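hey so u asked for the seq, here:
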Amino acid sequence: MPDKPLEQACDARVCIHTDQILDSCMDKDCVEDLRVYLTRESQAALDRSTGAKTRCAELLFARVEVEPLAYKRGHYAVDLTFYYRILGDATVGGTRPVTITGLAVFTKRVALYGGRGKAKTFSSTDALPTPDGLLQDRLPVGVVEALDPMILASKVREVCDCCRCETELTEIPPAIAEALGEELVLTGGTRRLYVTVGQFSTVRLERGAQLAVQSGGYCMPTRECCDDEGCEEDPCELFSRVDFPVRAFYPEGSDCGGTSCCGSCGK
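ran it, structure tokens below
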């Protein structure tokens, strides 16, 4: 069969392989009294401090694990572990606050529909799995998208006042521990730092799928290649596309009023 003209091919349906979202959910978690495991120097500063407060939290990594639910065919449990780097200040005597750093860990589980693929898919990039892996069904891929958490509250407690049933952190991924730059104190100390955080996240399960989509044409570059670092973008051309910062010329605290103000008054 002769090849179709390019004009006809651009308006035809084409087959693509992509990840199809089978199920998804969004969550707004308020995690209360999450223990912060401080670095050794930070723990020493907290123990001799008169008080401490947290400044910010950064989401370092989220581990995603998927396993089938035995009681619900085609559904899967998605276990999520969020690792946060917490920064705060400890007040030691009358000196300037001492910066303290630590790790907080939050775990949760959600149940989503992930389907059951009858066809077994293999590709040239696959590595040979373990013997157990050869006999297991292909699991859907779990994906989580999350923002850095909001610090809602923090408190310092004496060790003797802490909950006896508190779960101790026993395993930390090496990369997470190294990112903090110093050994963490998992046990001991006379005081402990706790934070309450607000976490926004979305979770989804995906499987590979072949889909037919309407093609609007092939994607071709619209800019010529350049072998000179200075010719990629003309600075005056770039500046001409920047919106005029009207709000920057308003006095602080003034009301925008009318429709002449760009953006929201609260920003």
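Helices lie at 6-10, 40-47, 131-134, 174-179, 235-240. Confidence is low (pLDDT under 50) at residues 258-267.
lmk if thats what u needed
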